[in-house]
């Protein structure tokens, strides 16, 4: 039952973060805030749904770093665009 509550909490957090992303995209908010929300969602998926918080730390670091690298590359490309 505890795992079900945790997964439900992760799902609700992902839904709220997704709605926040849509809301921020409608306004004049920097892309950095939207990318930060994307990294937070990746963290929730990695630790929550994939349950890597109980798994090998190397996999967890690898997947979280990958989300950070992607956000960094997208952020740089958006800033280069002007």
From TrEMBL:
Cellular-component GO terms for this entry: plasma membrane
Keywords, comma-separated and alphabetical: Cell membrane, Membrane, Transmembrane, Transmembrane helix
Topology with respect to the bilayer: Multi-pass membrane protein
Highest taxon of source: Bacteria
The keyword Transmembrane belongs to this UniProt entry's keyword annotation: yes
Membrane-spanning intervals of the chain: 59-80
The UniProt record lists the keyword 4Fe-4S: no
Location of this chain's protein in the cell: Cell membrane
Name this polypeptide is given: Cytochrome C oxidase subunit IV
Organism encoding this protein: Pseudomonas alkylphenolica
